[in-house]
Amino acid sequence: MLVVTTENIAGYRVVEIKGQCFGVVVRSRGAVGNLTAALRSLFGGEIKEYSSLLEQARRQATDRMVQNAHTMGANAVLMMRFDSSEIAQTMSEIVAYGTAATIVRAD
What we know:
Layout: E1 2-3, E2 12-28, H1 31-43, H2 48-71, E3 76-87, E4 91-105
């Protein structure tokens, strides 16, 4: 599955648009992780516990989006984007979304 952030792919042409595809992940850091992150925030700098959490969530959301596109019969996702939000100040929602499409090599 080819996943791109662009509308067009060099060397390929779009033959069918399957529709919107997405993958959603909601993650929460445990109490110990939140405490460690809170302590780190006192001194400034990167909070590695949250960076790692969000990196894993983005990968999982992307995997779910690709599976959704595959189920739709697509072989590519165009205009892929991420969105994120916070739920109840303890959870992060990550959404990967794009346009599922069928592409073929241009002749």
